[in-house]
Amino acid sequence: MWAASVCFLFVSLFPLCPGQLVKTAENYGPFTVKWNDYSACRGPKAVNLSEYVTHLIVDNATNIYKGILNFTFSNSAKMDEVKMVVYSLKGERRSLLWSYRVDKPCQHYAIADILEKQFGVHNCLFLKGHHDWTINFTECVHKYLGDSFFYGEFVFKLYVLSKKGNIACLVFTPMFSKKS
Question: In the β-sheet with 129-136, what is the strand arrangement from edge to edge?
């Protein structure tokens, strides 16, 4: 469920970096993407409302990257907020590109639609029980960014939150390079 939010925020909000990236032939164009890191992290709140395991699988023959998400909710939890912080990486140096927050994600036209149609979530309510989801990161990036994007390595930190606590936290590091 929150994988839909990952996909939506990653692909549709990333180009909003004000003045940070300027398109030139040297840093923008057809790309390939791979993920150098993908892991769970600690959320900002003291209470966790879910237990989850996530990992990245790669099909080296097709260069397809997929995130596997296994969640268990001991009680139903309502998603109230999604936050994403994005950094660019140059060597060992990290520079903040932007920070974005969506309050009331189920009132957001795109996030609500993705949650309902792809994951069966209504009114941002994660139901009690075990849930398994898969998100094809490679497909999401190419579907929403098109044929051209900025080259480089970026760090995305995603928080999915309820007023009562953390639902999920994820860090991933995609590397965009020139398509050969």
Answer: 51-59, 64-73, 129-136
**Predicted local confidence at residue 50, as pLDDT:** 95
Residues forming a β-bridge with 73: 129
- Reported as a pLDDT band with limits 50, 70 and 90, residue 19 is very low
Interval 99-143: pLDDT, tens: 989 999 999 877 787 777 767 788 999 999 999 988 888 887 877
Q: What is the pLDDT of residue 93?
A: 93
**Other CB atoms closer than 10 Å to residue 67's CB: what's the count?**
21
Q: How far is residue 146 CA from its own chain's centroid?
A: 17
Which CATH code of 2.40.50.100, 3.40.50.620, 3.40.309.10, 2.70.220.10 fits the domain covering 2-14+29-178? 2.70.220.10
Domain boundaries, the chain: 2-14+29-178
CA 47: distance to chain centroid? 21
**Cα 30 to chain center, whole Å?**
21
Two tokens, residue 73: 């909710």
**Distances 174 to 32, 78, 81, 120, 129 between C-alpha atoms, Å:** 10, 29, 23, 28, 31
Amino acid identity for residue 56 in this structure: L
Helix 109-119 vs helix 2-13: crossing angle, to nearest 10: 140
